[in-house]
């Protein structure tokens, strides 16, 4: 029997952040519908965070509205009297329209009610991005500061990249910041990299199908920052030395006579010495060359922590004042929306970008939080999801806000209101499409887990 290790700490952090993030986004989205409906005199029967089939985790009626929390964290809803929505309350729609019902209101009021959630999500994202820039600023890694180049992982080696290369251009456009590499690669169908190798430019072209494979692996096993292998601390409970010992500040440059000046080289080489004793070549105090005997455990670990790459590379940091952060946050949010739309377009126009490789459910969404509770990352992801939620909800699909808005616009232009039966069937078709899409995305994520 094989037991698979499971990181419960990372799982808990991801689940907690997912629930908190989407609770904020859904509650504010539904509040947009709620407040505008109340503003125009509509009766709101229910306001729910998350869906509540069969039972609710909590509910309380205040005035004419029942407030509650469901147990299925896939969305939320407000039930507005006289509106054909997820509840599919056909009996209520058979009764004569009442003044407090959604269907009795002018088309322009109904349009505002339907778009209010989307507008709040979009504005919320811009506020979040502005406050992130105000609080933490913006930190980027200039390619020019990567004095040790890149570490080429398995897929990068496959396409012709090498350790120590410096990627300077993507598709003949200057790559100023290393942080922009994923975006530059994924928003194109074909890619050619210009690489500075030993002082000379070398062109690396992706073969057909490579970008698809890269996307499927979410850019894992491609490239990372290369840095020296310097000891930051030693775990006395795990490290076992047969002669001498490592101390903080030691630079490991060799293992059993093989040069391994960089951490990535050393990590790869350690895999060949599981359960063995080795001799390490070490530079101490930047001048002394010494030998240290050490035992490598069965997992290929030595029992030390290396200094992180950030200690060897200069990042470019920009701080924003409060007033500066507002236009900067707006620009950042708009740019993220444009990139998302471009990425979505490639799913339908590019052979290298497949829906099955890019679509994900709550499992994929939860993983994006990184497995640790980091407030900067949390708010960044919440802002991105708010942008995506706004865009997806405004799509002209029945059962989404955009579908309702489309029918209302049709009514405003033609003067003819779609019949209740038509709206019922449209809502049913939309719900089937959405549920089918969610089931497909969940199936893909389950397949990836086992793959």
Automatic annotation (TrEMBL):
Residues 125-199, 208-286 form the PDZ domain. GO terms for molecular function: metal ion binding; metalloendopeptidase activity. Pfam families: Peptidase_M50. Its cofactor is Zn(2+). It comes from the Bacteria. The chain crosses the membrane at residues 6-28, 111-134, 384-407, 428-450. One of its GO terms (biological process) is proteolysis. It is an enzyme of class 3 (hydrolase). SUPFAM superfamilies: PDZ domain-like. It is found in: Membrane. Belongs to the peptidase M50B family. This is Zinc metalloprotease. It comes from Niabella soli DSM 19437.
